[in-house]
Amino acid sequence: MLKNSQSRRNRRESLRLTRLLRYERELWGDGLELIAGIDEAGMSPLAGPVCAGAVILPKNYRLKGLNDSKKILDPEKRQELATHIKADALAWSVGWAEVNEIDELNIYWAGLLAMQRALSNLTRTPEYILVDARKIPNCQIRQRGIVHGDALSASIAAASIIAKTSRDTLLISLDGQYPGYGFATHKGYPTSEHLKALKALGALPIHRRSFRPVREALGLDPIQESLFDQNLSEEVLSEEIFSGN
Q1: What gap in Å lies between CA 168 and CA 47, rounded to an integer?
Q2: 66 vs 230, residue with greater confidence
Q3: What is the separation of C-alpha 177 from the centre of its chain, rounded to a whole number of angstroms?
């Protein structure tokens, strides 16, 4: 009975991993070999940089447990998967957008900047890019944005795990540099613990001053802005932000 149950679980996982390669299989069928998945982590925290991961997986790559990093609740399991991905990938990299860039550009554009840097840091040039939810501006490589791509594409899922584990590792190290804020636990996200520490201890250099709870802790007025200036086209803004990076 237990053997049959395990066999059914194995079949379900095999089917899930097959479905996770649907976009990659289509591109492989067109003769493309080097397909990069790109995703970011750390868009909503109050502190720390945003990190993007880029991964080129081998053809027909299957890693048991590979999934959207947000669906992998065990940090040790995420780290284990990241270790396998780094060892197996044809190429992988990370890119960062720092806190000052987040405050200057806003988090939307800073996330795209981190993605662009992750792409540039790859040691192999992909023939096609799969991106979670959006597209990278000023990119000459063909690409496709997939809504919920980290749950639908193996390449994007792998990139999400690389980005998440890389950023978590950084925030754990910052916990030692800035004790009392709980960064090792909440990784900079706006938990009740973090908000209490922010109110009691004040804002740090790694806090995002464009985010409302941080501004409130500093006694600053809120910033009233949209994701980007509606009076300018997205194309013009991307040219201004990404030129020279």
Answers
A1: 12
A2: 66
A3: 24
Q: From residue 70, how far is each of 58, 127, 206 by CA, in Å?
A: 23, 27, 23
Alpha carbon distance 187, 71 (integer Å)? 17
Report the C-alpha gap between 93 and 33 in whole angstroms: 18
pLDDT tens by residue, 202-221: 999 999 999 999 999 889 88
Give the span between the Cα atoms of 218 and 204, in whole angstroms.
Answer: 10
Residues forming a β-bridge with 207:
47
Joined tokens for residue 27:
């591109």
At residue 214, what are phi and psi to the nearest 5 degrees? -70, -45
Which parts of the chain fold into alpha helices (H)? Answer: 2-19, 22-29, 75-88, 99-105, 107-121, 154-177, 183-186, 192-201, 212-218, 234-242
For 94, which DSSP code? Answer: E
pLDDT per residue over 82-102, tens digit each?
Answer: 999 999 999 999 999 999 999
31, 10 Cβ separation under 8 angstroms: no
Cβ atoms 50, 111 nearer than 8 A: yes
Say whether pLDDT at 38 is over 70. yes
Amino acid at 105: L
Q: Hey, what CATH topology would domain 12-242 get?
A: Nucleotidyltransferase; domain 5 (3.30.420)
39: tokens are: 């995703």
Cβ(52)–Cβ(117) below 8 Å: yes
C-alpha of 50 from chain center? 8
Residues in the chain, overall count = 245
